[in-house]
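Q: Here's a chain of 152 amino acids. Please give me its 3D structure as C-alpha cells.
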Amino acid sequence: MSENIQRSHNVSNIMYHFVCPTKYRKIVIDEEVDEVLKGTCLAIQDRYDIFFLEIGTDKDHVHFLVQSVPALSPSEIIETIKSITAKRIFKECPKVKKKLWGGNFWSAGFYVSTVSEHGNEKVIANYVKRQGDEYSKMYRADYIGGYRAFVD
C-alpha cells in the first residue's frame, strides 16, 4: 500500500484513482495487452514520480490506483501514463492498432478522484485489483464516490 513520499521540501501521500477507456470503447485489452500495459507502468515508475499501487484492466478500460508528488497535477500524471503506454502497446501488439483506426489507443477523456489514506484506499484498491474478474462481479455491494466498489 501507499507510503509517504519524502522530497527535499515536502512529505506527501497523494493518491488518485484514474479510469481510462480505450478509444471508441473498443474491446482491445486481452492478456497480451494487459501484460504489456502493466510492464510499461513499472518502467514509468523508474523514470517518473508516479507509483502504481494497483492496475486493473477490463476489456475496454483500465483502472489505475496511483500515488504521486504534489509537483505533478492529475492531468500531467495521466497524460504521461496514457502517452507512454499507448506507444508501447502499439509497438508490441500491432494487432491492436488495426482494431483502432485513427492512431489512438486511449479515449481523450478520463475519470479521476482522490483517495484518502485513512478512508477508502483499501476498498478502491480491492475494486481496481478485481477489474475484469467476471466471478467477483457478483459480489459488488456499494457505491462509493460515484462508482461501484467491492466491500469485503
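Q: Can you summarize the key feature?
A: Residues 74-92 form the longest helix (19 residues).
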